[in-house]
Structure formats: structure tokens, C-alpha cells
Design a protein that fits this description.
Layout lengths: L1 H28 L4 H13 L3 H8 L1 H12 L3 H24 L1
């Protein structure tokens, strides 16, 4: 049961990171059109600023992490933390490859 909660927390962390990236694009570029979101995401990839968007997206995990801790969902919170660490390693790898 604990592993299941950890995996659920990990996937929640990945989804929150994705939505955090979308919210970051919406706030930074002031657009909500889907085609423009894709355009700015591709522009971030081409300009080597994708890692910055991933880092901003990881801030959404912080909110969910503390909410889960408040409601004593420790194993799900560990999954969120693992997803955040995964995002950090991903940004390091992307920076290294560029």
C-alpha cells in the first residue's frame, strides 16, 4: 500500500510540474491560446530556456507537497519530493547536453 501511494504521489508531482510549466508560460507570455502555448514551449526549447520553465513548473509541487503533509499523506508527499528531484536531475541533464 505504501508503494502505491508513493507512485501516485510521483505521478501527481509530474502532472503538477507539467501544469506549472503551462501556468508559467501563461503568466510570462500572457497567452491562453493553445497554439501559442505550443509555440512558446517550442521557442523555449530552441532558445535553451526549457530548464527555466521546468524549474518554475516545479514550484507547483511545493504547494501540493505541503498540502499533502498537512493531511498526513506522507508517502504521497515523498512521491512529490521524488518527482521534484527527478525534475532537478532532468534540468541538469538538459543543461549538460546543451
Amino acid at each position: 500500500m505504501k508503494n502505491k501511494e508513493f507512485i501516485i504521489g510521483f505521478f501527481i508531482g509530474l502532472v503538477c510540474n507539467f501544469f506549472g510549466i503551462l501556468i508559467s508560460i501563461i503568466v510570462l507570455f500572457k497567452t491562453i491560446d493553445f497554439s501559442e502555448l505550443i509555440y512558446y514551449f517550442n521557442k523555449a526549447i530552441n532558445e535553451n530556456s526549457l530548464t527555466k520553465l521546468i524549474s518554475l513548473g516545479a514550484l507547483a509541487n511545493l504547494i501540493v507537497f505541503f498540502i499533502l503533509l498537512k493531511y498526513n499523506q506522507d508517502n504521497k508527499a515523498k512521491g512529490i519530493l521524488a518527482a521534484t528531484i527527478f525534475a532537478a536531475f532532468l534540468t541538469v541533464i538538459i543543461n549538460y547536453l546543451n
